[in-house]
């Protein structure tokens, strides 16, 4: 085990890993494996820490549904006062099913369809974060058709370097597909003024994900506020929101996480003089370390000078190690970490060499039937699962104060073929 506690909700009691006092081996016996397990108290703690840190300025926390969109988690966060940040019609549907009302929703995303925009307008979302001049025209057309004024913000690319651990999760640098280029933003704002069904209410940015430092936010905010001042001088009177996106880092192996207090102090200092309402869109920070993936060892084998531990979870259940070379701590769920250890690859059953959770990792010796806990799997875990190799997606379980409930049933084989008709409805071409 590396240094530092990833989340106090997961503890070792005797030899056994527990979540809020619930034994993970016992939970796994009850619900099967693989299973995602989330701690309600860990989610609450993260939410409150961030809310406290932002307390000084008018602010809204819009949880980024893409990190973990389970309805039970969305409901739990709504009870705490969160809004949501969505990026698709499907996430809009989820958010509404979880009880979120239009004004509690911000709609982001680089490729919204006309239909999704119309649904969002009908739902009365607080803001649509527009990412291009062509999107502006689509929002105008949909709003005109519905006879409403669309509340919009412009997502501006501040073109700032960030030190994110993987290129795939950087978004705020020059040349990415995201947002409106900084140099074009004022023009796009002026263009929105000529479109009668749009109302420009704010500016928005999102720098990327897993950002531990405050410095990129400071630099990017300065750019956004400079643009804001130009727009005020241009006569924009309705600007009231500054959305700084998500991106706050969590610790995966004891490395430095984002410091909510430092982040809060910095954004408050920058935003307070403007009187704007701050919006933040955290995903990973809220749920990343509130969840683990529990998987059972199927086989242990030695081949080509290596030892493989083969688990019943694969890249179809949890993609991060394979897709981003992401490091996730892995521990035996039921044996003390002082047990004999050896260097192994922890791999899944999928027919891909990229199907791994850890490569050349020193791990407590485990055998077939033992349980492993893959930590920090609460964000971008289940939501990125697939059915490749016709593998049903795993169960999700929420633990709260010594109890647990399945919040998403393990898929069945029937689920896998549900949308494939046995009799084909041919149509003339
Ligand atoms: N807002 C927008 C517009 C976003 O695109 C994202 C994430 C967020 C907020 C939330 O970012 P967070 O606070 O979670 O860093 N699948 C990748 C992460 C992709 C993040 C995409 N955008 C991973 O597993 O690392």
Rounded Rg: 23 Å
Q: Per the principal axes of the C-alpha atoms, what is the gross shape?
A: globular
> Distance between the terminal alpha carbons, to the nearest Å?
60 Å
| Overall tally of structural domains | 2
CATH architecture term of the largest domain: Alpha-Beta Barrel
Number of strands: 21
Biggest β-sheet strands, sense, barrel: 9 strands, mixed
- The first-level CATH class of the largest domain is given as Alpha Beta
What are the segments in which pLDDT stays under 50 over at least 5 consecutive residues?
A: none
- Amount of beta strand: 25-35%
**Helix coverage percent:** 25-40%
Number of discrete helical segments: 12
Which fold does the CATH topology of the largest domain refer to?
Answer: TIM Barrel
What do the pLDDT scores average to? 95
The computed structural class is alpha/beta
